[in-house]
Amino acid sequence: MNKFPQNFLWGAATSAHQVEGQNIYNDWWQAEQGHLLKEASNSACRHYELYAQDFSIAQQLNHNCHRFSIEWSRIEPQEGNFQVLEIEHYRKIIADLRSKGLEPVVTLHHFTNPVWFSQKGGWTKFKLQKYFLRFVDRIVRELADQVQFWITINEPLVYSSHSYFLGVWPPQERSLFKTVKVTLNLAGAHTKAYQIIHQIYRQKNLVKPMVSIAANLQAFEICQPTAKNKLAAYLRNRLYNFYFIEKLLRKKTLDYIGVNYYSRNLVDVQSWRIKDLLAQTCPYNHHPLPKNSLGWDIYPEGLFKLLLAMKKYKLAVFITENGICTQDDKLRWDYIYQHLQQLHRVISAGVEVLGYIYWSLIDNFEWDKGFIPRFGLVQIDYQNQQRTVRESAKKLAEVFKSGEI
């Protein structure tokens, strides 16, 4: 048996728009209601009302932490109009988690923005960072005494690329210039938010907080060992996996590195054009691997390789998302088990890991993919909102209880 460290954090995650339902003041809701996306979140999982039930399930499954996000558009539905009752709602969520022995890991931005912020230009404008930072200041002052772990921004490069390069997420634009601008503004916003959070904890004489981003990492593997492919894999690794993290490390604004890991990207480039070098993948299913229901390759070894490459940063890592969408629950358990094996392997190689958070606790609204992908440890019947614990969740509960695999 392979034993994980003492005080290891074990849990699962949700994000507000994907589970709460009726987030009527954000840009995603606006796009959904305007039929710009194939499916609308509507009531989602009604987690806004049913959170205590969901956390009871997590408690029964031996989780000792839970990652969730605070919906900015609930807190500030109109510019400058802060909703005290909504802040209190999130205080109750944290109190409920703590009462059940679950450490809250709180995300401040998980892809959604208030409509008023988007209408001003959102993350494309440097001067608008101040609105996010005002929100951060307000929330952290209200919740600091109950929260140790903060994630300022979830997957900043996924947000900038999907919203402004690929154009599949609101505001559905396609501009390399705006993609770069948004990425830099998100980096600046994190740096300032990090400083704000630490300053508040010092003012309140609280134990130093742990603040990071959740970076989405992919394993870039070459299909054939050509010069083009080698260059493309190198560029993608630098830009997608390490650029943002290293930028924040230089600013000394990471207390740990939050890592979201799902899949492999099989690099196969036909030309020297920059667009192909940065995006082209093998279309022929060479080197086939099992896949999730969205067609993503299952490649547990990638987690080991990426975390080992980060050892040089001399900073603890925290797996803030790792999971699979599938209707085959045996495949779900295989995926989890194999990734935990690789995680233990990298811990044995000297990388400090704080914990493992599965994505996700419950089935949910998977952004532009709608409700079809099933990531949850807990199945949701969207007709009646009934929760059913999957067998994979019960097996994972045994790991969480023993700390061994």
* Count of all domains: 1
Radius of gyration: 20 Å
Number of helices: 14
State the distance separating the first and last CA atoms: 6 Å
Broad shape: globular
Strand order of the largest sheet: 1-2-3-4-5-6-7-8
Give the rounded overall mean pLDDT: 97
Strand count, sense and closure of the main sheet? Answer: 8 strands, parallel, barrel
In total, the number of strands is: 10
Q: Helix and strand string, N-terminal first?
A: EHHHEHHEHHEHHEHEHHEHEEEH
Portion in strands: 15-25%
- The CATH superfamily is known as Glycosidases
Name of the level-1 CATH class = Alpha Beta
Query: What CATH architecture do you see?
Result: Alpha-Beta Barrel
Low-pLDDT residue intervals, each spanning 5 or more residues: none
- The fold-level CATH name is TIM Barrel
The SS-based structural class is alpha/beta
Helix percentage range: 40-55%
Describe it.
This protein has 14 helices and ten strands. The strands form two sheets. The chain has an eight-stranded parallel barrel, surrounded by six helices. It is an alpha/beta fold and 405 residues long. It has helices at residues 16-19, 27-33, 47-60, 72-75, 84-99, 115-119, 129-143, 156-164, 176-203, 227-250, 274-279, 301-309, 329-348, 391-402, and strands spanning 9-13, 65-69, 103-109, 149-154, 210-222, 257-267, 317-321, 353-359, 378-381, 386-389. It is globular and about 60 Å long. The relative contact order is 0.14. The protein has a single domain (9-214, 297-402), classed as TIM Barrel (Alpha-Beta Barrel).
